[in-house]
Give the backbone structure.
Amino acid sequence: MALFKRGKWWWTDFSVNGARFRQSLRTTDWREAEAEEKEKIAQATASKLAPSSQQFASLAFTKATERYLDSRKLELSQRSLKKERQLLVGPSCFFGATPLRRLTTENLLAYREWRTKNGAGPVYVNMEMGVMRRILKRAKRWHLLAEDIRPLKERRDVGRALAHEEKVRLLRVAEMRPEWQVTRCAAILALNTTMRGCELKGLHWRDVNLLDRALTVWRSKTEAGERVIPLNNDAMAAILELYKRAQAVGATDLSHYVFPTCENGRVDPTRPQVTWRTAWRKLTRAIQCPACGELQNPADKCCNEKCGSDIRGLKSPLAGLRFHDLRHHAITELAESQASDQTVMSIAGHVSPKMLAHYSHVRLDAKRHALDALSSGGLAGGYGTNNDTNAPLSPMAAPQAVDRNGRPVRARTADLHRVKVAL
């Protein structure tokens, strides 16, 4: 352990468990330097200080992110690694060549304000801060900032369940245009199997058992998501329609994807479809002209030249519906049925009742029906609390002599059962 001066600043040089620590104490006062050195030794003993041999904290932010991403290649999938790389674009632009050890609470709060002003939502900002937290933890710097950094409040939007009319409209509109065939089949499968979009896109033909009418999800968001799902009539019809489409392009090999990628009209069954976002947005935003019935995108005037009606006030009731909301709807319908929680969780791939409650949106009609059963006239032959509570008292039975523990006791007939139990 040694204190020495370099220029006007005091430095410390010590070793803990064979690791050498050599840092500037950023003070010109010897007494402050001595106290700061003791604190550094305590941090190093608690493994909260990076040794001099580990220069990660001294790297510029952009260099540190590159080293961090390289170290995560063996830990993350390609999709997760790509997501983390994307989340570091904003922080790299903001911090640039600033060393990690120079980052302060004020720097991180300033970045958060900058991102918010540029239109980033609280969820995305929290995700970016999460990646920076992992980088600063590796640099042994996060413990110095953690107490002053709290995540932004996120909107509690867990999705929604469709009304019956909305579900009918969605499927009816999806049949009107052939280019929405794949999206329509995906929607039918989501509504009848509770499958996530990523699970549908990763589905191979070897995962579909046409004889037993079931499909297997081998890879999902969680381990509980790996499950076998029986196919009802609607889901089976969608699978058969997709199989006929695959036969037309020669994409029925067991290793081929059920939802293959299609670029410029060319289907590649060896690659999964990345997204159906464009078709989904057009489907959910489509409106019908009240005058001529033409299906079209929202606009000021009807696209039919013979009609030309003013449609600027029309809006689809499905506008803003997410594809993931179909999973919410399917789980809600299961929750409203007579299926047990364990059955619903095994179908949906949940691991806890808490997640089931998160996804289930038991609708008002189901709640009203359940509460109607509590009223006196709710169900025929049901339990009427009003009649039983206000029922006249039954006449007292004649007293009879019984024995309790060998002693004669006078009891009413209604008490005989309890006496026998006591005996």
In short: Residues 330-359 form one domain. The longest strand covers residues 9-16. The first helix runs from residue 30 to 45. Residues 225 and 349 are 4 Å apart (CA to CA).
